[in-house]
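Box S2. Input/output pair 1.
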Amino acid sequence: MARPSVSIFYPCYNDWGTMGSMVLLTVQTARRLDLDYDVTIVDDGSEEQTRVLLGEIEERFPEVRVIRHEQNGGYGAALRTGFASATKDWVFYTDGDAQYDVCELERLVEKAGPDVDVVQGYKIDRNDPLHRVIIGRVYHWIVRTAFGLKLRDVDCDFRLIRRTVFDKIELVHSSGVICAEMMTKMQRVGCRIVEVPVHHYQRAHGKSQFFNFPRIARVAWNLTGLWIRLIVLRKDAWSLTPR
C-alpha cells in the first residue's frame, strides 16, 4: 500500500499499567511506517486510576482520542465501539494489556494488499501460565470445529481489517464471543484472510478477566447461543439482537 491509511484502536479496561507505553509505541510505529493514522482508546468503564491516565494521554498526544463507556459493557461492546469509530481505510486493534507488540503492526501492513480483506495474526508461542495455555487450546479447537473456521489461531486479537468489511457484516455480541462471531461472519461473506505470525508475551500488569469459572461458564453459554443462531439456524447478523 502507498501510505497506508489505518485507524488504530485499543479496548481498555483498567489497563493503567500498560496503556501509556502502548500509546507511545503506537505513535512511534505509525510515524516510522509513514501511516495516515488515528488512534482511539475505548475505555470500557475503567476505574479512577485508569481514567486519570487516559486523561493525561489525551493531553500529551493530540492524535489520540478516548471514547468512554460510563459502565463496563464487555469486551465485545468495546470492540464494536472501536470499529464504529474508525475513519481510515483499514482498522487495526489489539488488547490493551500489551501481550502483543504494537511494533509488529508492520508485519500486518506489509500483507495488506488490494487482494486482502483481513490480516490475522497468530501466536508463534503462547506465553501464559500452563492452565491458560490448556484452556486456550481447548477453546480454539471447540470454536474452530463448531464454526468451521479455517484459521490457525481463532483467539489472537491482533488484526488489521479493511473497514469496508463492516459494510457487509454486523457484529452484535458484547461478550468475548464477538471474535468467534466476527471471524465466522467474515468467512461467510468471503473475506480474503491472510495469517501472519506474531509474538505473544506474558502479562506485565493486571489480571485476565476471562480465566475464572463464572466467566468461562458465561462464555460457554453465549458461544452455544451463537452456534445455534449462526450454524444451526443460519441466521444472518441483522436478525440477531445484541446480547
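Box S3. Input/output pair 2.
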Amino acid sequence: MVRVKFDSVSKDYGNVTVVDNSSFEVKDQEFFIILGPSGCGKTTTLNMIAGLEEPTSGNIYFDDQLVNTMAPEKRDVAMVFQTFALYPNLTVHDNIAFPLKLRKMKKELIEEKVAAVGVKLRITHLLEKKPYQLSGGERQRVALARAIVREPRLFLLDEPLSNIDAKLRVHMRAELIALQRELKITTIYVTHDQVEAMTMADRVMVMNHAKISQIGKPLEVFHKPANLFVAGFMGTPPMNFFNAELKNVNSHQVVANEFFTINVDKAMGDRISKSTTGGELIVGVRPQNMQQVTASGDAVFEGEVYAVEPLGIETQVDVKLGDSIYKFVGPAEYKSKMGDKIKVKIDTSNMHLFDRKSEIALI
C-alpha cells in the first residue's frame, strides 16, 4: 500500500493552468475522492498520479519516493476509466488475464488469479463472453477485475460509474466500498457526483477552477463548507443563497434584506463586521432548513409558490421571491398550490453566512 503526496503541484497547457499549486496527501488504505465540475482539474490530477502526465512544477511522492518522471508501468498503479476500455476482441477471461500475461506470469498462476477475482466480483459465469455481450454493470465489473487482479498498491478510478444506469449505480457504489475495504488498497476516485462523494469517501477534496476548495470528511464538508462554491456544490437540492447586509435596527444588529430580517447576537455581529466589507453578506440555507409557517416574524419571508414537485416521501417547493426562485422541502402531503402566497421561515441555527466579496464562509 502507499501514501500519495502532492507538494505545490501545477499543470499548465500553454497559457492555461489546469491544476494550480495543489498540495494534499492521501493516506495509506484511504478511499479518497476528488470532486468537482467538468474542467476543474480533477482528471488531470489523477493522470499525474498515474504517470500519464508530468507536472509543470511541484513534486509528487509515493510514500517518500519522488515519482515526477517515473514511467507509468513502474508505479504499480491500476486505473479504471469511465469508458471501461475493454479489448472487444478478447473474452472476459483474456481481458482480465492480459496485464498478468504482460508480466510474463506463469499460466497456472494466471488461471488461479483470474478464477479468484471472478469469484470475488461474481463474474465467473461471464469469463467466456466478449464485452459486447455484457451489460454496462457487467463490463464495469470486468474492468474492476482487470485492475485488481494485478494486486496494485494504488487504485485509480476516473468516473467509473457515470456510464451505467442510476439504479445499478447505487448498487455498484456499495460494492466498490466493500471491495476497497476488503482489499485495503489506497484508492483515489474522481467524480462530479456529490452523492458518490458523500456516500463513498473517507475524505473528499473539492476542486474548482484548477484549485482545491476544501478537503475533509464528507459530512464536515457538507455541514461546514469553506466557501460559497462548496456550499452550492454539496447537497441535493442545492443550497439557497440570499444577498443581505449587517445592519443596526433599534440598537440591535440584524442580517437583513428587503424580504426578511434575522436577529444576530453581538458576538456574531462583531465577527461579521470584522470579516466583511461594509457588512455585505450572502445567507446560505439548505432547502431542508426552510419550512412553511403561518405567522410572520424573525427570519420569515413571504413569497409565491412557483412550482410544486411531489416526490412521494417529500415535496420540493419552488418559491418566487422578487425576481429569484428559492426551494424548500415540505411534507409529502403538501397543500399549497402554484400561485399561493405563503410564508417561509429560515432555520437560523443551520444557516451559513458568506462574505459577498471573497465568498469565504463566516459561519
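Caption for Box S3: The mean pLDDT is 93. The CA atoms of residues 49 and 60 lie 7 Å apart.
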